[in-house]
Design brief:
With 133 residues, the chain is an alpha+beta fold. Helices cover 35% and strands 20% of the residues. The protein has helices spanning 11-19, 21-29, 37-49, 115-130; strands at 9-10, 68-77, 82-91, 96-99. The N and C termini lie far apart (37 Å).
């Protein structure tokens, strides 16, 4: 077992757990990982998303502020025990929303997204809320 588990859990690991607890255990606890053609392709496609651009508005400036975006925003919280790199944060001048890019077509399921993906977005939204955005 991996003795050096970090203090903060990445939000993407919540996605893995919601998708498959065994996969989460193998990746997070046992630190077992093997790249596949899909993960390599995902890493290549994600390079653009991972370039930091823009900045989050200060919480006091969101309401009534301008619309905007920030890319590749990393937030963490000791209280929540979470860390996340959010692909895109959008603000419309009233609210701030996390956006997480996924590969493939929109699934034909209730809510239009997989439960595991919604869990990850909720964790990101909690981090945004804690940071006042």
């Amino acid at each position: 077992m991996n003795a050096a588990v970090p203090d903060l859990l990445p939000a993407r690991m919540l996605n893995e757990y919601a998708y498959c607890p065994r996969l989460f255990y193998l990746e997070w606890v046992e630190a077992e990982w093997a790249d596949s053609a899909d993960t390599e392709e995902g890493r290549l496609r994600h390079r653009r998303v991972d370039l930091e651009q823009g900045s989050l508005p200060e919480a006091k400036n969101v309401e009534g502020g301008d619309a905007g975006v920030a890319r590749s925003v990393t937030l963490s919280s000791e209280a929540l025990g979470l860390i996340a790199r959010i692909d895109l944060v959008e603000t419309d001048g009233e609210t701030v929303s996390p956006v997480d890019y996924k590969r493939g077509e929109k699934p034909d399921v209730a809510g239009g997204s997989w439960e595991a993906d919604r869990v990850q977005l909720c964790a990101q939204a909690l981090l945004l809320r804690e940071h006042g955005d």
